[in-house]
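Private note to self, pasted from the team thread so I don't lose it. Backbone tokens:
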């Protein structure tokens, strides 16, 4: 593990156009809302192999994000606002404690690669649908989440 125990804030200044952030393999337990409101140019974010138990509800503010790697943390879920990340192409949530995907993810039409291995059995969508999904086709996952979203569940 690395030496960081909190997210560095030296790059959270107005007009700084951070596009890539890699703080993997550290001991960061949380991400502040400030992180998601100041880094609106961020395109690639690797937070893998940390101690994150949740992601901030403001995650959806990172609208330029194309790659989000949060594998090997302690995440129990994803914020509903993740559905606002319409440019996101790659999402790696492997090796966490996630059992549900937010229904808002049904709107993420750019998502091409969803890595979920190493989580407990999924409840939403059901594990059978997750097992059928791969990097080439997330249509069944999107369809299920869209039905849940429309039903208001």
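Design output:
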């Amino acid at each position: 593990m690395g030496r960081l125990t909190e997210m560095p804030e030296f790059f959270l200044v107005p007009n700084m156009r951070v596009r890539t952030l890699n703080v993997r393999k550290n001991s960061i337990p949380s991400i502040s809302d400030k992180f998601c409101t100041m880094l609106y140019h961020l395109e690639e974010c690797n937070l893998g192999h940390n101690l994150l138990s949740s992601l901030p509800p403001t995650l959806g503010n990172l609208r330029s994000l194309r790659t989000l790697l949060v594998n090997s943390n302690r995440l129990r879920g994803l914020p509903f606002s993740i559905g606002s990340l319409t440019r996101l192409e790659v999402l790696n949530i492997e090796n966490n404690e996630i059992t549900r995907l937010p229904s808002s993810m049904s709107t993420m039409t750019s998502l091409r690669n969803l890595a979920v291995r190493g989580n407990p059995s999924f409840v939403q969508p059901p594990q059978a649908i997750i097992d059928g999904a791969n990097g080439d086709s997330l249509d069944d996952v999107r369809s299920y989440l869209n039905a849940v979203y429309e039903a208001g569940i």
